[in-house]
Structures are given as structure tokens and as C-alpha cells.
Amino acid sequence: MTTVLVTGGAGYIGSHAVLALRDAGHAPVVLDNLSTGFSEAVPEGVPLESGDVGDRTFVAGVLKRHGVGAVMHFAGSIVVSASVTDPTSYYRNNTAASLSLIEACLEAGVGPFVFSSTAAVYGEVERAPILEGDPTAPINPYGASKLMVERMLFDTARAHPAFRPVALRYFNVAGADPGGRAGQRTRNATHLVQLAVETALGRRPTLEIYGQDYPTRDGTCERDYVHVTDLAAAHVAALAYLEAGGAPEAMNCGYGHGFTVKEVIERLEGVIGRPVDKRAAERRAGDPPILVADPAKLRRLLDWTPAHDDIDEILKTALAWQRGLNG
Predict the structure, then answer these.
(1) What pLDDT score was predicted for residue 56?
(2) What is the domain range of residue 217?
(3) Interatomic CA distance for residues 72 and 7, integer angstroms
(4) Nearest CA among 80, 95, 83, 74 for reference residue 148
(5) Would you say residue 230 lies in a domain?
(6) Is residue 185 part of a domain?
(7) 164 and 197 both lie in a single domain
(8) Which of 44, 133, 243, 303 is the most buried (most CB within 10 A)?
(9) Is the peptide bond before 288 cis (omega within 30 degrees of 0)?
(10) Do 94 and 236 fall into the same domain?
(11) Residue 285: per-residue pLDDT
(12) Cβ 105 vs Cβ 163: under 8 Å
């Protein structure tokens, strides 16, 4: 059993990782400043340290107090459009805070480090699916801030071989724990599945489709949607890989196939049996036309086999969770 510090563990993806760690027999400890996370998302019996991941002295105390042996780092800012209008906050919350965390880990002798990265590091790609070796040229500060953290992690690993990171480059994460234990509580969500579900449940008046003229099969953005439970399982597999002596790596985390915005809406309408109120809107700043993963490295190195590769299941679990929040 490993004691694992989960930064951002009171957030959407982090809370699912906490469940996956407990299910696998590990002992998670959550560190979250609760600026976007929720204390009620932390399961009973899991310690919650309320503070900032960029506070090195505080983090050092947490690592020592709990005897932490590994870190999963989810804490950070994630809204692409907000990163365009307020880039300095993204470099502070994502890049600078991560540097402080890395330094605290080095000081405490923590080796395994699983980092929440993003497909936004690739920018506007020339082909799909995307391989990890493809050019990284982010088109927004969010992607740039995450790519900087990757470089810090791998540079640090070269200088300090006991420090071994894996960066999981997420594609579009959606859905909720099939058992109803966790889901997305995000205020002012910006991701399609959450927005579509909220519209279907009458919590939004209409669903805006941002951009109709992208070079995709129907003019709307295409994304690789990965179920959050499969993503959490990938984090636990990454930890096992590192504990078994695995080398530092960046790995794509997706299914290898995509759906356009219009296709997701159509599938949701099929699930609920009626149309969703929607309208066309202008493109959002910083949105690439297509992001679809080649997950071969993840599957090979981590022996990762997704259990929820089904867009309808993603939508149904998201709907069930959101209904439960109001029910």
C-alpha cells in the first residue's frame, strides 16, 4: 500500500482518482485549496489538507506528516478560453505552482509522480490520431503552461534519477463514476458533455455550438471523449508502472476515435428521447479543430484496457450524476 498525495483531489478528475486508488488498496491523501473543488467530493476517511499546492512549506509538511510515497498532480486551472484572456494566472497556477511541488517532492525523496497533462500541448495538429512524438505547439496558454510542467518534470528526472514522472495527456474527459460515488460538480463548466447534460436537464436555456466552419466532417470540433473512470484507472496503472521501475514517459490518454460536437448532441438526444435546445455561436478562442489520441503507448506500457469506451455510457453516467445532484 502506498500513501499517495492527490493534489486537486476534491475536483472532478481528482476525486475519481481517489476512488480508484482506494479501490486498488492505496491510501490517498487529498490536497486542495477548494477554489474549484468541493470538500464533499472527498470520501469519508480520506484526509483532506486544505491549502495551496504552490505553498512549498505547507506541501513539505503534508508530505512528511502523512509519509507520502507518490504524488498524483491534478491541481491547476483548466479553462482554455480563460487562459487566453488571463494567461498570467495560468502560468502561476499551473507552471509556477508545479515547480514548487516538484521541489518539495525532491526534498522529501518522493519518486513516483503522475501528472495531469493535456492534449492541448499539441496545438493544431496535422494528422489524427496524434502520437506522443508529434510536434508540441500549443495555441493557448493553458496548453503552454502544461507543456512547461512536462519539461520541468523530465528535466528534473534526468538530473535526479530517483524522481520518475509520467505525464498523462488527457483528451476530453467526461462521464461519472458508474456507481454514483463521484461526478462533475464544476461551477460554470465549459466542456461539451457537461453543458449538454445541463441543457437537457433544463438547467441551461440553450446549448451553444461554438464554430460551424472547422475542417471536420460536419464543421464542428472533433474530440476523443474518454470516460473519467477509465482515466482514473490509467492513473493507478501509471503508479504501478513507476513503482515497478518504469521510465519517465508522456502518454496519450484517449480511445483513439472521436466525435464531433454535433454527433455528441445527436447521441444525447437519442439517450433522452427528445431534442436539446441549441444554437450556433462564434468560435471560442484557442479551440483546435480536432484532437484524437493514439493511445498505443498507454495500452502497451500500462497494460491499460478501457472498460467504458462508449459515448452513450459516458452520457448516461453524466446524466445520472447530474440528476442525483438535484434529486
Answers:
(1) 96
(2) 192-222+257-296+307-326
(3) 6
(4) 95
(5) yes
(6) no
(7) no
(8) 243
(9) no
(10) yes
(11) 79
(12) yes
E strand intervals along the chain:
3-7, 27-32, 48-50, 70-73, 112-118, 164-170, 172-174, 207-210, 222-223, 225-227, 249-253, 259-260, 278-281, 290-291
Label residue 326 by pLDDT band (50, 70, 90). Answer: low
Q: What's the average model confidence in pLDDT over 263-290?
A: 94
Q: Which amino acid is at 149?
A: V
Residues noted as catalytic:
142
**Cβ within 8 Å of residue 138, ≥6 positions away:** 120, 121, 122, 123, 144, 146, 147
* Residue 230 sits in the same domain as residue 265: no
C-alpha cell at 66: 502523512
Contact 190, 36 (CB under 8 A): no
Question: pLDDT tens across 165-189, in order?
Answer: 999 999 999 999 999 999 998 777 8
Q: Does 201 share its domain with 289?
A: yes
Using an 8 Å Cβ cutoff, are 306 and 224 in contact? no
What CATH number is given to the structural domain containing 286?
Answer: 3.90.25.10
Give the pLDDT confidence of 102-134 residue by residue, as tens digits.
Answer: 999 999 999 999 999 999 999 888 888 999 999
